[in-house]
Amino acid sequence: MIALIGAAVAPGIAILSYFYLRDSLEPEPISMVIRSFIFGMLLVVPIMVLQYIMQNEWNWRDGIVAEVFQSAVVEEFFKWMVIYFTVYKHLEFDEPYDGIVYAVAVSLGFATLENLFYLIINGTNIAIWRAFLPVSSHALFAVWMGYYLGRAKFSKDAKHERLFLWMSITLPIGLHALYNLIFLAVQNWLVVIVPFMLILWWQGLKKVQRAHDFGSKNLSSRPQ
């Protein structure tokens, strides 16, 4: 059981540590990051209940509907709501990269508990696959979400803030839906999912660097 828990938790902790340690400007209080991680874990059960209702009570059993709405829309929307209402207005969110840190923390909290449930049901033989695909994909969708939340937070006018907030929810939903549809619609999905994940990592790391660049400009413009 200890090995199973370790296999479920380790990928999320490792990826979160990576993004947390990339915050070279003003690292976030570890208590805030842990809190966000726990909030993400707490989302798992209500989301599973809602997905069960959609599938069994609303008869949303079609593959495309299930993958787009029950998975991508529901999961990313609730993660976004948690970040927006618990972190976005917080004083500790004081540089653009913070959006990435907190979004990744919430998403990996969700992915870690979900991963534990999957391993309990299916065994540790799928642990490596789960770490490289579902867990890391949740983190990478969160990078996009957090990047645009950071841009919104430090926008100079309300119009741009609304635009970036909209992008912070629609782009992760779109990426998550595309990720799910690859498994649903592509017979030899491995040929497609590997380059897709590589592109996600490449673009995600570019977002990390851009967030740092915006953060450096923001710090340099503050009154001394």
TrEMBL record:
Protein name, entry field: Protease PrsW
The entry's keywords: Cell membrane, Hydrolase, Membrane, Protease, Transmembrane, Transmembrane helix
Chief location of this protein within or outside the cell: membrane
EC number: 3.4.-.-
Membrane topology: Multi-pass membrane protein
Family (UniProt): Belongs to the protease PrsW family.
GO terms for biological process, alphabetical: proteolysis
Top-level taxon: Bacteria
GO cellular component terms, semicolon-separated: plasma membrane
Pfam family, one: PrsW-protease
Transmembrane annotation, as ranges: 30-53, 99-121, 127-150, 162-179, 185-202
Enzyme class: hydrolase
GO MF term list: peptidase activity
Subcellular location field: Cell membrane
Keyword Membrane among record annotations: yes
PANTHER family, sorted: PROTEASE PRSW (PTHR36844)
Biological role stated in the UniProt entry: Involved in the degradation of specific anti-sigma factors.
Underlying gene: prsW
